[in-house]
Amino acid sequence: MLGEDFIREVDKELYPFIKKILGTFWGYTDINKDIEDVLQESWESFFLKYSHRVNNDDEVRALMFTIAKNTAFYHFRQLNRMMVHHDDSQGFASTVHFDGVYEMFLSEDINVVLTCLDEKQAFIMKAVMSYEDIHKQDEIVNMIKSDYKKKFGKKLNVALYRKIKERAQKRIRALVQGDKI
After folding, report:
1. What is the pTM of this model?
2. pLDDT tens, 56-113?
3. How far is CA 77 from CA 7, 22, 38, 67, in A?
4. Cβ(89)–Cβ(83) below 8 Å
């Protein structure tokens, strides 16, 4: 399943995605080393946490995009911290607001898919994309349960989180396989 050819293919898909995250604000031209670092760290994280749980290539791709996105944002934050301490970049650093960075990079395709889900499924899938490669499901539920209760008026537990996530994944598969998006 995870031969060298497949890994190279996924790397080619991830490369422009990571480059967009790392290079958008600062526009520096020599980011290839940073992209390679993000790819390496993403694969390491995947193999440490998920390699024994994944059944097919599509799941690997989906996980790798999530892991690479979070790893790239981590590198981006590190880069920003270095730039803040550099005198010439002080003007740039003060104009970047990280609250909206994730939303800025959330692709149009993902937004289209999320709009096809019901409100609860979209809420849970955003949490999955944001946290699941870093935190366990029970930790995620603890982080989002108050927001869930405010938004939907119901308590969220791990079983409900998993149920909503599973339904959302089925809906997404049906949409993608049926070319309805």
Report:
1. 0.46
2. 888 888 888 889 888 888 877 776 665 544 444 444 444 444 444 445 555 556 777 7
3. 26, 9, 13, 15
4. yes
Residue 155, pLDDT > 50, answer yes
| Closest residue by Cα to residue 105 from 132, 140, 139, 130 | 130
Angle at 58 between CA 9 and CA 22, to 5 degrees: 55
Cα separation, 38 vs 36, whole angstroms: 5
What pLDDT score was predicted for residue 169?
86
H or E stretch at 1: none
Using alpha carbons only, give the angle 14, 7, 169 rounded to the nearest 5 degrees.
Answer: 65
User: Does residue 13 sit in helix, strand or coil?
Assistant: helix
Q: Whose CA is closest to 77, among 105, 98, 102? A: 98
Domain ranges of the chain: 1-101, 106-181
pLDDT band at 179 (very low <50, low <70, confident <90, very high): low
Contact between 2 and 51 under an 8 Å Cβ cutoff? The reply is yes
60 with 45: CB under 8 angstroms? no
Residues 6+ apart with CB under 8 A from 158: 137, 138, 141
